[in-house]
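User: what does the whole thing look like in 3D?
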Amino acid sequence: MKNYINMSKKELIEEKEKVMHEYQKFKSLGLKLDMSRGKPSKEQVNLSMDMLDVINSKSDCISQDGIDCRNYGILEGLREIRKLFSDMMGVNEDDIIIGGNSSLNMMFDVISCFMTHEISGEKPWLKQEKIKFLCPSPGYDRHFAICEYFGMELIPIKMNSDGPDMNKVENLVENDITVKGIWCVPKYSNPQGIVYSDEVIKRLSSLKPKAKDFRIFWDNAYCVHDLEESVEILNIMDECVKNGNEELPILFSSTSKITFPGAGISALACRGNNMDILKKRFSMQTIGYDKINQLRHIRYLKNLDNLKLHMLKHRNILKPKFELVISKLRKEFEENEIIKWDTPKGGYFVSVYVMNGCAKEVVRLCKEAGVIITNAGATYPYGKDPFDSNIRLAPSYPDIKELDKAMDLFMICVKLAALNKLIESNV
Amino acid sequence: MKNYINMSKKELIEEKEKVMHEYQKFKSLGLKLDMSRGKPSKEQVNLSMDMLDVINSKSDCISQDGIDCRNYGILEGLREIRKLFSDMMGVNEDDIIIGGNSSLNMMFDVISCFMTHEISGEKPWLKQEKIKFLCPSPGYDRHFAICEYFGMELIPIKMNSDGPDMNKVENLVENDITVKGIWCVPKYSNPQGIVYSDEVIKRLSSLKPKAKDFRIFWDNAYCVHDLEESVEILNIMDECVKNGNEELPILFSSTSKITFPGAGISALACRGNNMDILKKRFSMQTIGYDKINQLRHIRYLKNLDNLKLHMLKHRNILKPKFELVISKLRKEFEENEIIKWDTPKGGYFVSVYVMNGCAKEVVRLCKEAGVIITNAGATYPYGKDPFDSNIRLAPSYPDIKELDKAMDLFMICVKLAALNKLIESNV
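Assistant: Here's the predicted 3D structure for the full assembly of 854 residues, as C-alpha cells:
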C-alpha cells in the first residue's frame, strides 16, 4: 500500500478512480450498520440473562439488613450493593450513594444541584457571572452536553497519551476563579482508551483551585472493562485525602456495561460537604431508588471477584472485535499516513485521526453507503473538532462479520476523503 | 361517651385520671407500631409477586416495536407502557414521558428544570426576584419540601370539601406575577381524601394566570386507588385544552402503589412548550429509563381493565383497615367534639382534626408509647399547621390487629391532650 502523502497528482487521480469504484460497489450493497455508540452487543447482554431469575415470585426480597426491598425507603441504597460499589470504586461504603439506572443521570443531578445550591459556601453556579468547565478532548459528548445545557463555557484541554495536559489544567484551575470543574474518564477514556498515569492523577489530586467550588468529575465508566490484563490506576480519593483535598473529587460508576445497559445500577462517591449537599438533594427528589433491582444485582454479581469473572466473558466477546479493527487499520494503512489510531487496552472505542479537514466527509460518505458512525466533532466541546480530524469508532455492537464489512467501507471512505483533499490542495 | 366540651373542671380532672391510667397501661406494653407513611402493607406487595416471573432468563425482552429492552435507548419509554399510562391518566400517548421508579423524582426534575431554564419565554425561576407556590393545605409534605428546597415562598390555600378554595386561588394566580405554580392531588387528596369537584377543575382549567410561566402540578397519585366504587373526576387536560390552556397542567402518576413502591414505573404528561423543554432536559440527563422494568410492568398489568382488577385486590386489603379506623373514631367520639375526621373514598390516609393546639401533643404522646404518627404540621407548608390541629393517619401498613391497638392508643392520646387543654383553659 502506497503512502498517499507522497503521490503525484496523477497517481492520486488514478487511485481515486479505483477507490471510487470500490465505494460504488459498497453503496450498491444497501448496508445498514451502526458503529456510532458504545453499546454492548446482543451476545453481551445475553451474558446476564440469569440475573433475571435470581429475584422471582418465590424470593424473599429481604436485604442483608432485613429490609423488604419491595417497599419504600433506604435512600442511600442497600448496604450490600454499596459494599460492592465501594470495592469496585476503591472508596469507603459510607462515601457511596446508590442511584437509579444511569450514572449519567447522577452526574446531571450533581451539576444541576450545584447550579441552584451553594457548595463550599459559594453562590449557586447559576447566580455566578460565568462558569467554565474543563473538557479533556476528545471526550464523551454527553458530558460536554450537560455543561452546554446549563450555559457553561466549555474549555477544551488537549489529551496527552497519559491523560489531560496537566500544565494547562493547573494553570487554569489555579488562576481562574470561574473554572469550576473538569471531566475525567480516567481509565480507558472515551474515545481514546487512554489510561491516566500516576503523575497525572497525583497532579489532579494536589490541585489548589482558585475556586473553592471547583470539583473533579471522575467518571470511572470503564473501571473493570479491560480488553487485556487489567491496568490499575492510582486511587483518586486516597490521593486527594492525602493532599487535604477530600472534597475535590466526585466519583461515578455503574453496571450499565456489566449487566444491562439502561437496566443497571449506578453509584456516586464523595465526601464532606459534597456528601451533605447531595444527600439533602436526593432526599428531596426521591424516597429511594429501585431496591429490587439492587437486590437482583447483588445476588447475581455477588462480589467484586465474581464480577471480574463476569467481565472476562465480556472481554472474550469484545476482544476479537477490537483486534479486527486494529489489524485491518494496520494492514491497510501501516505505510499510508492519511490516518492514525490509538490501540486501547480497554473501554469501548477506537479513536482514529484522519487527515485534517476530512472527518466530517468520512462520516458523510459512510452514512451515504449505510454505515452510521459517531458524528465527527461529537467528541469535542460544542461538537467542534478544531482540526475536523477525530473519529470515534464503536466496534462493540455489530457482529464480527458486519464489523468487518463496516470497517472495509470505513477505510474506503477514509481514502476517498483523503484523496479528494490531496487532489484539491495539489493544484 | 360524654362530650368533653361540656364537662366541668371536676369532671375533666376525674376523666383525665381514668384516661391517664389507660395510657400508662399502654405504655407498659412496649408497642412498636408505625402509622406515619402511606406505605402499602406486606400483604399488598405480595399481590404483585407474579410480576417478578414475567421477565426471566427465557424471555425475549423484545418490545412491541421490536426493541431489545436489555440495551440503551428509547428515552420516552416503550410504546405499550405509554399506552397504559395514557389510558390511566386520560391523555394522548404522545403527551406521555415515562420516567424511572418515582413520580416524585419527575416532579422534582420538572421544578428543577424550571429553576434553571426558561419556560414560555420567561426567565428561569432562580433568576426571578421571588417565586411563590400555592399549597392547598393540608397536603403532601414532600411536595412542599421540594418548593422549600428551592427557596420558594409557600402560600397555604384552604382546602374545602371539593378542593382548594378557588376564590383565593383565582385571586392570587390572576393578580400576582410571582405565583408560578399550584400543587394538586385531585382524587383522594393526601391527606383528606378529598375529590376535586367538576366546578373546581373547571375553574382551575380556565385560570388566566398573570405569570406566563404559571403551571398546575397535577399529581394524580391515587387515580385508581379506590376504597369504594370508583369516583370519576373531570379530565384536567381536556378542560385546559378547551380553554386554550394546554400548557397549564403537568400531570404525574406512577405504579408505586399498584405494584411495588420504589420499584414501579412513573410517568408525566404535558403539551406544547412544556413537552419541548422537558424532553430536552430528559435527553440531557439520561439515555433512557429502565425498559426491562417497563416491559415487566406491561406484561404483568396488560391493560387498564386488568390493572383495575388488580386494584380491587388492594382495595380488599385496605378497606377493612379504613373501616376499622373510621368505626373506632365514630364509636368513641360520635358525641365527643374534641376530634373531627374525613371519611375518604380512596387514597391512603384518614385526616383528623383534634382540638386546636393539641396535634403536636397527641403525636408526642403516641410516640412515647411506641406508635409513630406523621409529625403534626407535616401536612402544611414549612411544617407549620396554624391551628396545630391536623393529624394524618396512615392505616395501610400495619396489620389489622396492630392497627386496632395503635388506634386505641391514638384515641387515648387524643383524649389526654384534649383534657389537658380543657383543664388548663378552664381555670
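In plain terms: The mean pLDDT of chain A is 97. The longest helix of chain A spans residues 304-333.
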